[in-house]
Structure formats: C-alpha cells, structure tokens
Write a structure and sequence with these properties.
Elements (H helix, E strand, L loop, with lengths): L18 H17 L7 E2 L1 H8 L3 H13 L3 E4 L3 E4 L10 H8 L4 H26 L2 H20 L2 H18 L3 H4 L2 H13 L9 H15 L3 H18 L4
Antiparallel strand pairs: 1-3, 2-3
C-alpha cells in the first residue's frame, strides 16, 4: 500500500462508514496481502488505513477484525497489526480464494484448487448418488439440461450461474458436511475462471456431456459412474487450463 493520500474521515462521516466503503478497503488490503505486496511481517496501523482510504476509525478497525478472523493478520499491544505467515492463513475462506485468484499468483492458486476439487468432487458425486433426495436428483438433472442449453447458446453469464448451482448442489447433497463447507470456495474458482476469460465462448461438448452423465448417474443412484463422470469434468478443466 502507498502512504497517506487523503485525510482521515470523521467518525460521523456516513460515507466513510458505509458497508460498501468497508468492502472496498477490505478488498484492497486483502488483495495486497494475498499478492505479497504486503508480505508476512508487514505492520499496519488504523491511522494508516484511515489516511489511505479516507475512512472512519470504525471502518478501519472492522476491516482489521475481518482480516484477523481469516488469520491474515494478528494484533499485539505495543506491536500493532502484523501480517501473518502464509502457513497460518485460512486458505479455504472464499474471500481469500478470490483475492489470490486476483493476484499474480493466480496460476498457483488455480493449480492447488483444481487438485483439491479432483480429490473431493468425485467422492462428493458418489455420495450424492447414494444420499441425495428425490428433489435434489431432479434438480441436478434439470441443471445439467440447462447447462447444455446455455452452453450451446454461448450465454456464459447464465451458464456460470447454473454451473455454480450444479457443483454446489452436489456438495450439498453428498451427505458430508465437510465437503459441503467447500461450496463457497468452488463458486469463487468457477466465477474467476469465467471472469478472467479462461472459459471458451461455448463450453466443449465433452464437458457438457460429462455434467449430464454425472446428473444421470446420481439420479439412478449409480455411485461408481457418478464418480467417474466427475473425474471426466475435472480432467477437462485441468487440460483446458494447461495444468499439470
């Protein structure tokens, strides 16, 4: 971060205490930490944040509380606010995932996230085949059909929304609460891939077919086929992004 550019806002300044303002400051500092612009050991102060972003002390303090809850910083009396070592970060937090994908280390983050998805989502698909409700099976089938329609039409924004629903529903219906907790992270990586132009204008037929295969296998309770088909989806992701 640079040095002060504007004077600190008064505590009563509503503009400096708005949720939008806090979100802007949180995003800026979060990306700076995630990218390494603020490396571990860097010290921050509430005064600096106030001066840098023209916000109230309350906004600066609340921003630091969020970062501290993510283990990105810690606070000590007579030391101040210090950026934590990377090994202590809550790397599963969707906000941190988004910030890392917005940084120069996005390739490394895509690789690690794809490896995590390969480890988790096929097992989640098998779990959904065993445990999903009738309504969840029907919804997954409908989403796969919608992905086919939107993909062939090149409607990427709507395709992204349906793709997020598809993958999150699998995680929600698999019966494993630890897998379900990853849905926000998966949504962030799917969003980033689209926003950064890493999706083809029209998704490949192989990918669309694999989504349909997963949905069909889950609908009929075929755990083995659901797991295999999900592997096909993630293999396509890995190959499309040139990941090892």
């Amino acid at each position: 971060m640079s040095t002060a550019t504007v004077g600190p806002a008064d505590e009563a300044d509503d503009g400096g205490a708005s949720p939008a303002m806090q979100g802007r400051v949180l995003e800026a500092v979060g990306v700076a930490i995630a990218s390494g612009s603020l490396p571990p050991g860097s010290r921050l102060t509430l005064d600096t944040l106030q001066q840098e972003y023209g916000v109230s002390r309350t906004v600066a303090r609340d921003t630091m509380k969020v970062l501290e809850s993510m283990n990105l910083v810690y606070s000590r009396r007579r030391v101040g606010i210090v950026v934590q070592e990377r090994a202590l970060w809550n790397v599963f937090d969707p906000k941190l995932v988004r910030w890392r994908l917005a940084s120069d280390s996005r390739a490394e983050q895509y690789s690690s996230l794809t490896e995590l998805r390969i480890a988790v989502e096929p097992i989640a698909a098998a779990g959904a085949a065993r445990r999903a409700s009738a309504a969840e099976r029907a919804k997954l089938t409908a989403l796969a059909a919608e992905l086919r329609r939107l993909g062939e039409a090149g409607e990427l924004e709507a395709f992204l929304a349906a793709d997020i629903q598809f993958h999150c529903l699998l995680l929600q219906s698999c019966g494993n609460e630890m897998f379900t907790a990853l849905e926000g992270m998966v949504a962030e990586v799917l969003t980033s891939r689209t926003k950064q132009g890493l999706m083809p204008f029209r998704p490949r037929d192989e990918a669309l077919q694999a989504h349909e295969d997963v949905a069909a296998a889950v609908a009929r309770g075929d755990a083995t086929t659901a797991e295999t088909a999900m592997h096909h989806i993630l293999d396509e992701v890995r190959n499309a992004m040139g990941l090892p």
